[in-house]
Amino acid sequence: REGGGMNNLSSAPNLREQRHNGHCYCCKPIPTIAIYVLIPLFFIGFGVSIFILVVVHNAAFFVSLLFLSVLVAAFVLWNTLNWRRNGAVLLFLQSFPDSDLRVARDGQLVKITGLVSCGSVSLESSYEKATRCIYTSTLLYESGELGLKPADVNRSCFQWRLTYFERFSTDFYITDKKSGIRALVKAGPDCRVIPLIADSRLVKTTRKCRILSAHLRKWLRERNLSAEARLLRLEEG
Q1: Residue 102: C-alpha distances to residues 48, 105, 114, 180, 229 (Å)
Q2: What totals of helices (H) and strands (E) does the chain contain, helices first?
Q3: Domain coordinates in residue numbering, the chain
């Protein structure tokens, strides 16, 4: 990284990550209480519909229950897939037209699309060492499956745990494609930034992996992390 002027976003999780009790990566696009309510309702409705079908010989209630269950399942699936990709937020942002900086007023919320270039400070990605970046994000996940050493012995969730991450942003320039005006975007220190950039998966180890690569071991040791072979997933954006 060159110079100062970086905004450390590592303590500010984005819309997908939550840090609590050991940095456990939790996927909850549907509230837990909704699951606890829907499952009993389904079994109650299923039992009543079977009773009506057997006693009254009327399948209308049973068919209606199946149709409603398919609709609910489709909604849950759609919500889960879009939540993982920040789909709802991106769709909301895409619905706004691009602003014209020539007529924008002071304090107006604007949406700008155009070419981005570094400001006085540029960043370098942590793992791939990509240079001339305005935003970098590196996330390390560790599996919590049975038979593996957990990242937090007090937790037993069998899923990928976010065990380490670092995220930075800095001021940058963007050239408005509508007006051609070059504007400075403040994303450096003391600026609030909500990243919506999807991270790319760079490393994913398997059970057959006995020794981690030299580059990965070096990266882990530089951050005082265990370099033992285990199920890991590293993403960077």
Answers
A1: 64, 9, 15, 9, 56
A2: 4, 8
A3: 1-16+106-237, 32-85
End-to-end CA distance of the chain: 15
Q: With contact defined as beta carbons under 8 Å apart, do 162 and 19 qualify?
A: yes
At 152 the pLDDT is 44
The answer to whether 9 and 169 have CB atoms below 8 angstroms apart is: yes
Q: For residue 107, what are its two tokens?
A: 């304090």
Identity of residue 98: D
Q: What strands, in cross-sheet order, belong to the sheet with 172-176?
A: 114-118, 172-176, 182-185
- Does the reported pTM lie above 0.70? no
What pLDDT is stored for residue 206 in this prediction?
80
Cα 197 off chain centre by: 9
